[in-house]
Design a protein that fits this description.
Layout (H helix, E strand, L loop, with lengths): L1 E4 L7 H9 L3 E3 L8 E4 L3 E4 L9 H9 L3 E4 L3 H9 L12 H13 L2 E8 L2 E11 L2 E9 L4 H15 L4 E5 L3 H4 L4 E4 H13 L14 H9 L1
Parallel strand pairs: 8-9
Antiparallel strand pairs: 1-3, 2-3, 4-9, 4-10, 5-6, 6-7, 7-8
Helix pairs in contact: 2-8, 5-8
InterPro entries: Acyl_CoA_acyltransferase, Leu/Phe-tRNA_Trfase, Leu/Phe-tRNA_Trfase_C
Family: Belongs to the L/F-transferase family.
Enzyme class: transferase
């Protein structure tokens, strides 16, 4: 279900957080469309935090610490990467209003990034919104193989360590399904959402410090 929001209607960060608490999130038709529309899928994508699957090849990459994982150091770089065209994504729904709104949530401490760096370059990552014990994954990108996947592994390890109860992916793609993502009917999702947002999650309980960050992330998922 989607409801279009006129470009002139003011959407504030506070309104955006209330929408997330109700199971609704905004999207745009394209990067060039100034309007947003509210989305509430009939089937919601979630990754059960106790059922996250790390393929063996990816586990070796995580354990190798090929990428340096940083948290919340370059929000603008991450959202720009997510908005850039890619071979499997010719268009993006991230328009100027999305960047502005989520940038404001980042400044308020509600939006977070998990970033993969290599040789001083941001080569992949993801961003999302934290509300209570729920984390809403928004988008991810990579410029090197496995960079976004490694960031996702570190995100889930951080959420499990921090006591989160829900990882929302909005939709399920074949890529996310390989990690254990499933579709949940709207009514069931609302029960999960209410329980998660009523609790609390500490995104910074476990700082990912080098070295051996990958091994410790995998251990947290065991």
């Amino acid at each position: 279900m989607a409801r279009r929001q006129d470009a002139d209607t003011e959407i504030t960060p506070e309104l955006l957080l209330r929408a997330y608490a109700c199971g609704i999130f905004p999207m745009a038709e394209s990067a060039d469309d100034p309007a947003l529309y509210w989305v509430e899928p009939r089937e919601r994508g979630v990754i059960p935090l106790d059922g996250f699957h790390v393929p063996s090849r990816l586990a070796r990459t995580v354990r190798s610490d090929r990428f340096e994982i940083r948290i919340d150091t370059d929000f603008d770089g991450v959202i720009a990467g997510c908005a850039s065209p890619a071979p499997d994504r010719k268009q993006t729904w991230i328009n100027a209003r999305i960047r502005e709104l989520y940038g404001a949530l980042f400044d308020l401490g509600y939006a977070h990034t998990v970033e993969a760096w290599r040789d001083g370059r941001l080569v992949g990552g993801l961003y999302g919104v934290r509300l209570g014990g729920a984390f809403f994954g928004e988008s991810m990108f990579h410029r090197e193989r496995d960079a976004s996947k490694v960031a996702l592994v570190h995100l889930v390890a951080r959420l499990r360590t921090g006591g989160f109860r829900l990882l929302d992916t909005q939709f399920v793609t074949p890529h996310l399904a390989s990690f254990g993502a499933v579709e949940v009917p709207r009514r069931e999702y609302r029960v999960l959402l209410d329980a998660a947002t009523a609790g609390d999650g500490d995104f910074h309980r476990w700082p990912m410090l080098q070295p051996d960050a990958g091994a410790r992330a995998l251990a947290a998922l065991a």
